[in-house]
Each structure stands twice: as structure tokens, then as C-alpha cells.
Amino acid sequence: MKPLLVFWAFFLCLPMFSAAQTAIGFGSVQAVSSNKEYGNLPVINLHSGDYIKVSFDDLQDRDMALRYRVRMLNTDGTPNDMREIEYISGINKIDITESDYSFNTRSNYAHYSFTFPEKGRGLKLSGAYRFEIFSPDEPDEVLLAVPFMVCEAEVLVNIEIKVPRRVEWRRFKQELAVTVDASKSSVRIIQADRCLKVFAQQNMNTQTIRLLPMLFQTGSRYEYRDKDELVFDGLNEFRNIDIRPISYSGRGIEEVVLVNDRWNAQTLLQKSREYKPYVNDDDINGNYVIKAENMEKSDLEAEYVNVHFVLQADRNPLGGYYVIGKFNDWLCNDKSRMEYREGIGAYTLTLPLKQGFYDYMFAGLYNGELSVPRVEGNNQETENDYYVYVFYREPGGRYDRLLSVAKANSREK
Q1: I need a surface site. Which of 127, 143, 204, 220 has the fewest CB within 10 A?
Q2: CA gap 32, 157 in Å, rounded
Q3: Distance CA 268, CA 262 (A)
Q4: Measured distance CA(70)–CA(52) in Å, rounded
């Protein structure tokens, strides 16, 4: 029986790496780097021509004057206590002048964007940062916090993705071996066991970030391997939906209908993939892309669609299910939690998403513990991206330098 369409309108997560913190009324927050070497990460190189473009929508269609400033962070996510003049050149309260209203859309919104660095404004130091967006009338109230990083590209990083060393993990997990080579760097690393901090992350998922323990050092080479912290769940390929078209059903969509002057899209009925055979499928590793079919300016012409996710599962009175992906910061919270519908015997969640292509997964809560594999399955063969960040604060130093960012894919040799 076809389910009824119901309409109703961290592992370790370090704050430094957290995705955009969004205030009520904002959506589709993106930070895109011009440097494609880092994939989809918001990372630029220091003293280069790289730039980051930040964009977001005000879904409440308010006529707001907005500004942004840049805040330097420590690796624990707290603001660095250096003075602004020490890490940024130019004024650090900048008007956002690129804004416009949506047109030919059923849901009205205002679209904002800015590019950094701008003329006369730039960063002097590498490290972790965030853009803080605020109203000039209330400068202490941060409406959006969008993280990004500035890299020196000073050390070489090699990432090997291999079959786990433990036999019992070999069907389900993937293990990293990371080498940081500073032999040709102008940076002299001192007390590496205390001052060098290396983090790893899977698929831009901020909930998977962990600090890696060093195994040993040989000269200016630092080895991170054969430790449990370098072992990740293989998981499964992402589920995805294509809501670029609204005149017909795209990939992963059962139907698209217009209700109360708002587009609504119901996903195909989804089921648990635990214990199912692995199936290779195309995805974008948890990311999403904003695009409206046959529209020249998707930023302003794309509709916001109420997407109704449906997961067929037995009622879980001691837990529940969540929809996660980069589009909602991978967070399991009230906004991403699904509700059980007795009438259809399934969990549902409605999210307003701008037209585009979205990857997502389900996470389950079982007796207080979150698990993705118990819903999505766990396979060693899954194609995943991995990112490694190398930070260094010299003895007596006042900030964490970002010496390298590296990326590897589990299918690449």
C-alpha cells in the first residue's frame, strides 16, 4: 500500500569545524572556496588569489541591513584572544551589499552573498576562522556563524585508506594511515607530540572529526597509524533526492504536488539497509547543490519545496530516527527528528529545502545511543572521502597555524 502523504507546515564534534550555525529564519547557507584542490571544503591558501563566497537566504523575507566580521579560533573552537589587527588587514565590520529578493517564486525570500577577501581586507595568518553575520543595530547578536580555514600548505600529507588491521572489522570499516612530512618545510616543528595536532574527518561530516594520536616520529616525518582513532565505519552510499525539477518527479521522489500555494515533494518509501548487500551507487558524499531546472539564476528563482521524508520502520519507543546530511549540519536534533505515524506505520519528517540535489542518510537512536550503521548498513567497499587537517602551535605561540589540508578517496590508489 502506498504510504499517505502527510503535509505539515556529535561522535566528537569540535566547534572549530562545525558547520554553519544558523539562526531561525535562515536557510541554504553555503561557503564555497575558489580553490578546488580542497574539494568542497571552505579552505583558502594564505597570501594567494583564493577567495570564499558565502551565500544564504532569509526565509522570512525581511528587509535587513547585514554586516559580517571575521573571528579567529583556537582548535578547541573558542575565540582566539589576539587583537583583530594582528590577524586581519582592513576594517573588520563589513557591509553585505550583495542582496536581492527572489522572483517568480511561491515562497518569498531574500538572498545575500559576499566574497572574502575583499579589496583592502584580508588575513595575515593561517588557522581556523568563522564569519559572524549580524545586524548593525545589534552587533553582539550573531545571526549566522560560518566556519572557514586559511592554509599555509607548508607540509606534505599522505593519506592511505586500507583494509582494517583487525579481522573482525574488515567487512565493515575503513582504516587510515597518515604521514605528515615536514622535511621540506620552512616551518621547524618542535615538541610535535604536544604542539602538532592532526585531525581526520569523513565526507565533510563534522560529527566524525577526531584528533589522531601519533604513533612515532622519524626525523621530520610523523606517523599516525595502527590506532583505533583512525578506523571509521564504512557505512553505505548516500540516499539522494533530486528536486531540481518540480513539474515532474526527480530521482528519489514519489510525487510533487502543489498544496496551499507551496510545492511539496514526497520521497520514495525508504527502508533500513542494515544486513542488505552492498550496492554501488552514485552520490556526492553527503553534499548538496542548489539548482532549479531551466532557471538561469537559481539563487533567486529556485523554489523552497516541503520535502516529506518517509522511513518504514517499527515504532521505537525508546529512541527514534533522524534525517542528516550537509544541508542540516549533520545534526540530530528536534529539527531533524522524525515522527512516527500510526496510520502508515512509518516515520516521517518534513523539511523546507531549496531546489537542488541532496544527499542524506538516516540515523537511529537506540537506548540513548545514536547509530547510522543500524539503519544504513556498514560496508568496507563504500566510496568515501577523507580529509586531514594539520595544525601547529609552537611552544609559546598564540595561535594555531594550519600547515596543511589533505584529501583522499577510498577508491583512489
Answers
A1: 220
A2: 23
A3: 20
A4: 13
